[in-house]
Amino acid sequence: MPGAMTEVIDYQRPRILRIYNIYRVILGFFLTVLTSGALREGLLELNNPQLYETASWFYLFINVLIALLLHQGKRDVYLFVLSVLDIFLLGSIFYAAGGAGSGFGNLLLIPVAAGNILIHGRVGLLLAALASLVTIYLTFYLSLSTPGAVQSYLQVGVLGGIYFAVALFVQRLSKRLRQSESLAQQQATSLASLEKLNQLIIQRMRTGIMVVGGKQRVLLANEAAAQMLGKPIIRGMDVDDLAIGLAQRLRQWQNNPAIRTLPFHNHSGGAEITANFKPLPSDEGETVLVFLDDNTQVAQQAQQLKLASLGRLTASIAHEIRNPLGAISHAAQLLSESEQIPVQDKRLSEIIQQHSKRMNKVIETVLELSRRRPSEPQLIDLSLWLEHFAETFALSHPATDRLELEAGHNVMTRMDPNQLNQVLDNLCSNALRYSGAEGEHRSIWLKLYIHPESNLPILEVIDHGPGIPEEHLAHIFEPFYTTETSGTGLGLYISRELCESNQARLEYEPLVPRGSCMRITFAHPRRLV
């Protein structure tokens, strides 16, 4: 507390000293005005007019000089010297004016009071003692030449007591003022720190927060809101220019606050965002507090629950299905090896074995999905990772299959590398299968870039095959949905599940005039998964 009080008085010292200097200059001006005999006639009887004139002009000159040079808070020794100089100069004027009877002794109260405000500790009492000694000594010296001055000792003694009373009172008052101001400054510092902490918490929240004014203009927004809406700076923007979907849902809510707004995408490939609104009282008109939530995390949690349920289901039925299926397949194999079986029945036995193998593959795929370990996202450079993937692809496929890679540099994201490899293997296999028959010259393309609006990494797997018919587009990511007799219908479903578990999105887009594009929108590299 003493250290804080010292800082407070040091902070206020220049202002107090400036006021004190102005007072001294004004006082000096009025004292010099009284040097004119015509002006002081009837007001003041001087004991020594010559000394009074000299002391007054010197007092004015020295105060103007000090006001110009000494206008900042200095150390205590300088302020003490300034107060002592003021006491001695006013004491000489006190003597020239005729002593206590002139009333000029009251002028020494201000230097005593100002000194006790500006100087730390009890050194200010020395100023009161010095002022008392100056007035008593000058009264004594004045009584040697003016016998009537002897009667002024009592008045001078009372004046000295007043000096000490003023010094003690000002010290006590200054101490209380310093304590009050120190407490106010500490509270202001605490409030400022709390405000910074609140701003930091709001900025670091994953929920986007915006304050929209009455003219549909964004007044405040945190970093999460800017990232979701794909704009580096959204403060000051109109909601219509920022996000059409958000503006539509804001108007819907304003027309009917009880309505539950639907999620929206701010742009192609952007995250699915849910907006909630709350009125905010304000002097500037109708203000709305907007909360933006990225549904990716909610979808990821639902995905984990879905996989857990699927794991329990498949674990419970795998044994019941695989054992009878194995018995059926083994019996069909033995039946086909019999010499007495007709050719027509032998064909039926092969069909039984073929579909038993297919059914066993479906069960293994589902079991692999249910037993899949949780994703372990890592910060990876997609550019380097795809170059390695393309080299591995070239070594594991015939020369008739080509993979063209178009990738920028330093494209970073967070994803499990093993799961990304599984997704790309599946997507590239599908792209090759639809690009032509095995053994023919087939080409697919991988295109990596940063989305210009959302700043999110995007990877496209492109082929120029026949594409997917429009009637099948709504079902391509559903489990067990396939248009082929040999497929399981789980490839795209598993790929999307793996992407969602890493906060990425897998979408399909048809190409014109023909072809397919599987687009993966990755998470931002700074996003915590």
UniProtKB/TrEMBL annotation:
Domain of life: Bacteria
Residue span(s) of domain Histidine kinase: 316-526
E.C. no: 2.7.13.3
UniProt feature coiled coil, ranges: none
Gene3D superfamilies: 1.10.287.130, Histidine kinase-like ATPase, C-terminal domain (3.30.565.10), PAS domain (3.30.450.20)
Tagged with keyword Acyltransferase: no
Keywords: Kinase, Membrane, Phosphoprotein, Transferase, Transmembrane, Transmembrane helix
EC main group: transferase
Listed InterPro entries: HATPase_C_sf (IPR036890), HATPase_dom (IPR003594), His_kinase_dom (IPR005467), HisK_dim/P_dom (IPR003661), HisK_dim/P_sf (IPR036097), PAS (IPR000014), PAS-like_dom_sf (IPR035965), Sig_transdc_His_kin-like_C (IPR004358)
Catalyzed reaction equations: ATP + protein L-histidine = ADP + protein N-phospho-L-histidine
Pfam family, one: HisKA
GO molecular function, one term: phosphorelay sensor kinase activity
Transmembrane regions: 21-39, 51-70, 77-97, 126-144, 150-170
Protein name: histidine kinase
Organism encoding this protein: Halopseudomonas pelagia
